[in-house]
Amino acid sequence: MNPLSQLPSVDRLLSTAALASLVDLHGRAIVTAMVREVLAEARSAVKAGAPLPDEAALLAKVGAGVTAQVSPKLRPVFNLTGTVLHTNLGRAPLPEEAVQALIAAARSPCALEYDIESGERGDRDTVVSDLLCELTGAEAATVVNNNAAAVFLLLNTLAQKKQVIVSRGELIEIGGAFRVPDIMNRAGARLVEVGTTNRTHLQDFAEAINSRTAMLMKVHASNYAIHGFTHAVPEAELAQLAHQNNLPFVIDLGSGTLADLAAYGLPHEPPPAEAIAAGADLVSFSGDKLLGGPQAGLLVGRRDLIAKIKKNPLKRALRVGKLTLAALEAVLALYRDPDRLHLRVTAVRQLPRSEAEIRGGAERLLPALQSALAGLPVTVEIVALKSQIGSGSLPVDRLPSAGFAIKPQGKKSGVLNRIEQGLRGLSKPVIGRIEDGALLLDLRCLQAQDEAEFAGALAALGIQK
């Protein structure tokens, strides 16, 4: 008898109780397609000499395939990398107030571009512009989808076919080979570099100004720092020079923070309010980094310049939707109460955590991790670690932290890769890092309220001994 004839039919498998429940959950189309795919694979395998699979194995394969297909691609993870604002993991987690505001906006029509008082069409920027002006001291504000878009839009509006003077030491490249000079070129502006990599003086800017100059621009250091024999022109001096020549002075802060990080024992990061006070006419910064909100590019500054930017047709192409604005408004509102920021804004809460506090969590979780890895040729110990802020923020500063170091016994280094893959394969993946022959799990971003969930996830870790 031909063994292929003994394979169950599509209808036979679909009639089983196991697949009937899958159909109820996910619909007949996706389950039927997976049954056909599994049976086709089985036929090919049997033709190649493989034994005939039993019905239970086929059903299990269909179930696993359907589950994999319907699982969300954007999945929550445990960020144990040691990088707080991890670009690949979505940067800043939103505080609960922002989550609730986002849900409310998603469920219902909103007064996004509708003025309730007048009953006429409104401006979506007004959702957050008053808050941004209050918190930065600016005259006006607008929002686009990220900071690169903010820089692009201001350059395209104010410097198209004109020159923008920037210190050579500030022509940065951020992740993905994304470079400031490239943004300027695409925006239609002509870059004029002045000074040297490590030293730029006011006279360098003054000598470069001509009739084609559109603005003086300063780009805040991101992902790097220059030390030693250096000099940068103070912002107030650049502003004065720009205004003497009837030019705007623009600062791209990159990360941008509205909090006094020094109050939490962290290095000072210049906030937009400082730049505005120093004479900047426009300041751009991100919403999802040190600010702790959703991805957005924020532009604050002079009313007339913001008005020009908002009239650019590209503004519509780069604008944000109601969900972003709802979350951003909720986060900005928290900054009205700076005394409790560290309790309410998730990113601000995670950054100043002490090594002792984090080590306490490691001590509570050590038995769960040891149990999950029992029988494997590894050692597990609690170690001191160094976290980083991430997303280009304070790139040379490290935060004392603690976590686990999983090390192979002897020369069995391959076991670390299996453990790392196993952790990534959990229903809520655990993301760590392999460094210097050890798998490191930094617990800075694991809050006390998440420890039970993490221990439960570890209990499901199954790695062949």
Topology:
Blueprint: H1 10-14, H2 17-26, H3 28-47, H4 55-70, E1 78-79, H5 96-107, E2 114-115, E3 120-121, H6 126-136, E4 140-144, H7 147-158, E5 163-167, E6 173-174, E7 178-179, H8 180-186, E8 190-194, H9 202-208, E9 213-219, H10 235-244, E10 249-254, H11 272-277, E11 282-286, E12 297-301, H12 303-311, H13 314-318, H14 322-334, H15 341-344, H16 346-350, H17 355-372, E13 378-390, E14 393-408, H18 414-424, E15 430-431, E16 433-435, E17 438-442, H19 451-459
Parallel strand pairs: 1-15, 5-8, 5-9, 9-10, 10-11
Antiparallel strand pairs: 2-3, 4-12, 6-7, 11-12, 13-14, 14-17, 16-17
Helix pairs in contact: 2-3, 2-4, 3-4, 5-14, 6-14, 17-19
Task: Explain what you see.
The protein is an alpha/beta fold. The chain has three domains: 8-70, no CATH class; 78-88 and 349-459, Aspartate Aminotransferase, domain 1, CATH 3.90.1150; 96-344, 3-Layer(aba) Sandwich (Aspartate Aminotransferase, domain 2), CATH 3.40.640.10. Helices cover 41% and strands 19% of the residues. The protein has 19 helices and 17 strands. It has helices spanning 10-14, 17-26, 28-47, 55-70, 96-107, 126-136, 147-158, 180-186, 202-208, 235-244, 272-277, 303-311, 314-318, 322-334, 341-344, 346-350, 355-372, 414-424, 451-459, and strands at residues 78-79, 114-115, 120-121, 140-144, 163-167, 173-174, 178-179, 190-194, 213-219, 249-254, 282-286, 297-301, 378-390, 393-408, 430-431, 433-435, 438-442. Strands 4-12-11-10-9-5-8 form a seven-stranded mixed β-sheet, sandwiched between helices. A four-stranded antiparallel β-sheet has the order 13-14-17-16. A two-stranded parallel sheet has the order 1-15. It is globular. The two termini are 41 Å apart. The model has no long low-confidence stretch (mean pLDDT 91).
